[in-house]
Model the fold of this input.
Amino acid sequence: MTYGMLIDTRYCSGCQTCVVSCKMSNQVPGDAFYSHVISLDGDVLYQATGTFPNVKMKFRPTLCNHCESPVCYANCPTGAIAKDAETGIVAIDKELCIGCGDCAVTCPYEIPIVIKNEGVAGKCDFCASRVADGELPYCVAACPTRTRYFGDINDPDSEISTMITEHDAEVYKPEASTNPSVFYIV
Done:
């Protein structure tokens, strides 16, 4: 099994509920965030692109991609980053982390962050404890436009796998060659 997420950007309103729910529910300290919303069609968030009457504003929620070949894992000098063999979830063991930031610097998606006051790195772990209890990650459960889908991307009959195939979903930054488990319908 490999857990993954599909985000349908056609319906994302950029409301940032996913960002806030992640921060609050995971008690992410200070000015740190494990997820973000970026512009999908321009350089400036919340600035429309195009020319009237053909203007648009699209968003890409970002989070850890739980890659098949995670660069953060390969570059962690202490072994604090591990990829769970049963679920594919990539997580940081804060007891082993020394806060060097190698994971943050090498991640092509700029996802791991060093939490200033704690001196350790942090990132999305797909809300692993919730998932283990049969619940959805907070960002999926909180999304008011229901643009996020979560499940086993290795099961060809799962809802997420079917949607990835039907909509020809793509990964963010495919040139990084990390084989992400997060897909987007754009």
Observations:
- The mean pLDDT is 96.
- Residues 115 and 141 are 25 Å apart (CA to CA).
- Residues 17-25 form the longest helix (9 residues).
- The domain at 3-185 is CATH 3.30.70.20 (Alpha-Beta Plaits).
